[in-house]
Amino acid sequence: MDAFFASVEQMDNPKYAGRPLIVGGDPQGRGVVAACSYEARKFGIHSAMSAANAIRHCPHALFVRPRKERYKEISVQVMQIFRECASVIEPLSVDEAFLDVSEDHTSLEDAIQTAEHIRNRVFNEIGLTCSAGVSHNKFLAKVASDINKPDGLTVISPEEADDFLAALPIGKFFGVGKVTEKKMHSLGVRKGADLFRFTQKELERFFGKAGLFFYDIVRGIDNRPVQVNRGRKSIGTETTLHTDLIDMEKIYEILHDLSEKVGQSLQRKECGGTTITLKVRYHDFSTVTRSHTLSVPLFSATEIMQLIPNLLQATDAGKTKVRLLGITISNLSGIAEKHPLQLPLPFG
Q1: Where are the beta strands (DSSP E) in the chain?
Q2: pTM score, two decimals?
Q3: Taking the CB of residue 276, how many other CB atoms lie within 10 A of it?
Q4: Which of 54, 56, 144, 260 has the fewest Cβ atoms surrounding its Cβ within 10 A?
Q5: DSSP helix/strand/coil, 294
């Protein structure tokens, strides 16, 4: 979907149409940009930017608070259209999915027609635009879907893949974020052709396990299947604090509230998880995570909070001011697999 949250707001409120719209927190406070319209992006605004910084980029931007339930409602409608048009679907988020149509269609032309049909249905039945990428593997389809946004369709045939990837700016490669892009640039890698010159061993030396991924994708190799039963991998929540905190008592109070929210989500989903991760962002925006994995799942806020002190001690909270806190439970399993919790010995 194109600028999904912002597009929903513009659809529901015609007065927002054509205007720089930001979905996120209070620009006078410490909120962040959750999403923004394409009109706002022209001013350099992007998701995860602080709301205060966004308003400096575009003083006349409109701010609205997120309406998560509304976005979920639209997402259900979109996914239903996907399911009616393809038999193999892997949702990635509320507004994006991989669709494998190779079981239903045998030619690239058929796949292109399916993509156009989906885009037309989403627009005519829901009122929003979406962009599609069509290719012979997940990586190329994902990259293609971002090329002609908004309301675009990009096709990369097997014959075109090598030339396309050679000319593609390295920052456009799926899996290359800002930090990795900067490192790529330091190695002289500006586009795919530059990356192609590196051996697998060289890339693994520079980027660890991701090196093999980069080696393959620049050659158009991606054998990952579209996973129909791709389940949710984690449940978590985080909060940006109203003021930077160094008071540990107040920090624990906030973490207790977060653990309650995560515990409630686990109960609603009837699942638990064996890995707990604490996220701490300091006043200078540097961020650390501390994780621990148990042999049995966590299912409640009480169980979560019993592990928080050890994780928190492994950070600089209490020494350095904190601006954001988060808790996530991953490696999820069903409630039927619940066992009595056996807390580990303290660790540093």
Answers
A1: 21-24, 33-36, 62-64, 88-93, 96-100, 132-134, 153-155, 234-245, 271-282, 287-298, 322-334
A2: 0.72
A3: 26
A4: 56
A5: strand
Q: Which residue has the tokens 């925006």?
A: 285
Q: Burial-class residue 254 by CB neighbours within 10 Å (0-12, 13-18, 19+).
A: middle
Q: Which DSSP category does 116 fall into?
A: H
Q: What is the pLDDT of residues 241-292, one digit of tens each?
A: 989 999 999 999 999 999 999 999 888 888 889 999 999 999 988 889 999 9
Q: How far is the C-alpha of 198 from the C-alpha of 275, rounded, in Å?
A: 36
Q: 17 near 10, Cβ under 8 Å?
A: yes
Question: Among candidates 308, 236, 238, which has minimal Cα distance to 271?
Answer: 236
Asked, as a colleague might, if the bond just before 59 is cis with ω within 30 of 0, I would say no
Among the options 69, 96, 204, 253, which is catalytic? 96
d(CA 273, CA 154): 39
Does residue 73 carry a catalytic annotation? no
Question: How does pLDDT run across 79-121, given as a tens digit for each residue?
Answer: 999 988 888 899 888 899 999 998 776 688 999 999 999 999 9
Which tokens belong to 316?
């600089």
Structural domains in the chain, CATH included, are 4-66 (3.40.1170.60), 72-155 (3.30.70.270), 161-217 (1.10.150.20), 234-337 (3.30.1490.100)
DSSP-assigned beta bridge partners for residue 32: 50
Residue located via tokens 């449940």 = 235
The closest of 184, 178, 143 to 164, measured between CA atoms, is 143
Backbone torsion region of residue 48, taken as left when φ is above 0, otherwise alpha when ψ lies between -120 and 50, otherwise beta: left
Please give the structure tokens belonging to residue 203: 């890339």
Residue 209 DSSP code: T
pLDDT digits (tens, 9 = 90+) for 61-75: 999 999 989 999 999
How many other C-beta atoms can be found within 10 angstroms of the C-beta atom of residue 49?
Answer: 17
